[in-house]
Amino acid sequence: MTISPTLHKYLAVENIEYDEIPHVLTMSSALTAQACHVPGDRLAKAIVLRRNGGYLLAVLPASHHLRLTDLKARFGDDIALAAESEIDRLFADCAHGAVPAAGICYGLDVIVDDSIQTQPEIYIEAGDHETLLHLGRAQFDRLTAGSLHGRFSTHD
């Protein structure tokens, strides 16, 4: 498996340019960053949240931890981490746990942490545990156009 079909189709339709970077099998964003020699601040990880009966994708640097209390302060107390089974259902064409930071093509609202906005280039999961996508700043901005932004993470 490489890039998920849903993500691949969306990137093609939107004409978003990227490079595929194969890497050894990893099971966490921190290990992926190490394996690819990519700064953790430039690897966007995606965390699926449940909100008001729907879902929200939080995008933050792999070197950061989500501050759920900050998201609750902004969006209300009805925010929680989605269950693994919910994530697997939403991202059915992705490997378990390999959620791309591209919620729009999966019909999800997205919120991007402000800290990732300072990076000149961004890497995202492709939908498996062996491929990253490398996007320039402008391409990542197009991928996350219309997303909400805010501060909801802290550096490890």
TrEMBL record:
A GO term, aspect molecular function: aminoacyl-tRNA deacylase activity
Entry superkingdom: Bacteria
Domain YbaK/aminoacyl-tRNA synthetase-associated: 27-142
A Pfam family: tRNA_edit
Matching InterPro entries: YbaK/aa-tRNA-synt-asso_dom_sf, YbaK/aa-tRNA-synth-assoc-dom
CDD domains: YbaK_like (cd04332)
Protein name, per record: Ala-tRNA(Pro) deacylase
Organism: Bradyrhizobium macuxiense
Lineage: Bacteria, Pseudomonadati, Pseudomonadota, Alphaproteobacteria, Hyphomicrobiales
